[in-house]
Write a structure and sequence with these properties.
Helix content is 30%, strand content 29%. With 155 residues, it is an alpha+beta fold. The chain has one domain: Alpha-Beta Plaits, CATH 3.30.70. It has a four-stranded antiparallel sheet. A hairpin with an 8-residue loop joins strand 2 and strand 3. Helix 2 runs antiparallel to helix 4. The two termini are 31 Å apart.
């Protein structure tokens, strides 16, 4: 391959298999911001419902956002949130996304995009009260399916 040239990986010869990927990330914020989310008192409305919808929608459009991703037929995309306790080291929202489908390539990017866009949506909806929020620790937690089989961090 010539330096500076790009190409989409050819997956024609790969078998369709059931695949799944789970990703996770965090939005850290002030305790007062987390409390506004809990109570549903932010001006823009229900932060978690909008962030969940945004994450699901984004995962379905991953191939439009990431130039060399293959368009995949997802069979399920789930986005869930865990609100931290205000007395812990981390104050904020932990996001977990699960992307499933049957295909020739994995669903890691769909799960990661769902987490990232959900986090950005939380930031957007809360920025009027907390511009110091941070988004971080977006990572693949596990994947399964395909020739390489299961992936778990640390293995």
């Amino acid at each position: 391959m010539e330096l500076g040239r790009i190409h989409m990986v050819d997956v024609t010869q790969k078998r369709d298999t059931e695949r799944q990927a789970v990703a996770r990330g965090k939005v850290q914020m002030k305790p007062s911001t987390l409390e506004l989310i809990r109570k549903g008192e932010l001006e823009k409305g229900d932060v978690l419902a909008v962030a969940q919808t945004a994450g699901i929608m984004a995962a379905k459009e991953t191939h439009h956002l990431i130039p060399l991703c293959h368009p995949l037929q997802t069979t399920q995309i789930a986005v869930e949130f865990r609100l931290s306790e205000t007395d812990s080291d981390f104050v904020g929202v932990e996001i977990t996304a699960n992307a499933k489908g049957i295909g020739k390539t994995g669903f890691e990017m769909e799960a990661l995009v769902a987490v990232a866009v959900s986090a950005l949506t939380i930031y957007d909806m809360c920025k009027a009260v907390d511009t110091g929020m941070t988004i971080g620790e977006i990572r693949l937690m596990r994947k399964s399916g395909g020739k390489s089989g299961a992936y778990l961090p640390g293995r």
